[in-house]
Design goal:
It contains 15 helices and no strands. It is mainly alpha-helical. The chain has a domain at 32-206 and 287-310. It starts with a helix and ends with a helix.
Length: 311
């Protein structure tokens, strides 16, 4: 009986221990992509009637004042998606899980939803600014910039171009409001600190080109492209061109653009099959230059306003 009582007590204690363990939440993951996936799943398209679409576009570019009655419900219906986006930008890592080694491609809907989420985040900043909360608007747009940098992580050139558009969605209102003097001194100092450490072209375009390089190199070595693998000589010429282009993309945008003519000439000397797997270097260069120009304008606007205030 004594042994049975002890066994019963052990079972009760074990059961209580298990129950207590089951009451604990699992630890938070550091991978921002997990929350971004939730945001992308939750985001809802705004009404597609012409009046709403035109009002939204005009509001985003500063041609129309904020209209809470017409645009507020769009943001309210997307509050969960926007909150998930902004929480995700605080996490240190972002791995989307796309496996480009095996020919997987980013689904088209991913890019479309990421851009929609960015535009809604941009609009949320406009709403906050209209409410007089410049600090919150600034943080909302900075979260959008962080989202752009995370979108670009680990992807090929097409993903970098989507990230570039997202970056501009959120950089332009920061620049515009800085030029209009809408930020207070504390916000200007915070924003300038972020802008000073931000890459002028947003993120590492050379990394995106490297992913593209690896995808193309693998494709050229497989018979599926032309019925037979490309010759070693042609693949070697492709590799040399891709490495030269990647090196240029690691240079500052204006310096890199001076190398564009020579690189395009080298590309034209490659075989037709090799050229088909190479993205447009000119498009990439132009995207980098535009982003760098917007970044420069932001820094200039912050510096001018601070100088005026000092006088």
């Amino acid at each position: 009986m004594k042994i049975r009582a002890i066994a019963t007590m052990v079972a009760i204690l074990a059961s209580a221990s298990v129950a207590q363990a089951q009451a604990k939440f699992p630890p938070d993951a550091d991978n921002a992509a997990l929350r971004y996936w939730f945001a992308l799943a939750e985001v809802q398209e705004p009404p597609q009637d012409d009046a709403t679409r035109h009002l939204m576009e005009a509001t985003l570019v500063g041609q129309a004042a904020w209209d809470e009655s017409k645009l507020g419900p769009i943001l309210d219906s997307n509050s969960d998606a926007l909150r998930a986006l902004q929480e995700a930008t605080k996490l240190p890592e972002c791995n989307w899980g796309f496996d480009y080694r095996h020919g997987a491609r980013m689904p088209i809907w991913f890019g479309m939803r990421a851009r929609l989420l960015s535009r809604l985040n941009q609009l949320e900043g406009v709403r906050e600014m209209a409410r007089g909360d410049a600090a919150r608007a600034m943080n909302t747009w900075l979260a959008g910039i962080h989202f752009a940098q995370d979108v670009a992580r680990g992807g090929p050139v097409i993903v970098a171009l989507i990230a570039n558009a997202i970056f501009l969605d959120n950089l332009q209102p920061l620049r515009n409001n800085a030029q209009l003097g809408k930020f207070g001194e504390s916000q200007k100092k915070e924003l300038q600190a972020v802008a000073n450490v931000m890459p002028e072209d947003g993120f590492d375009w050379g990394a995106a080109w490297g992913v593209e390089f690896a995808i193309g190199d693998k494709a050229l070595q497989e018979p599926s492209m032309t019925g037979k693998p490309e010759s070693d000589e042609r693949i070697r010429a492709y590799d040399e061109y891709m490495l030269a282009a990647q090196s240029a993309l690691r240079d500052p945008p204006n310096k890199a653009s001076s190398r564009l003519g020579n690189l395009e000439s080298e590309e034209r000397s490659l075989g037709d099959v090799e050229r088909r797997v190479i993205p447009s270097l000119r498009t990439v260069m132009e995207a980098r230059i535009r982003l760098a120009a917007e970044h420069h304008d932001l820094i200039q606007a912050l510096a001018q306003k601070q100088s005026s205030a000092a006088r």
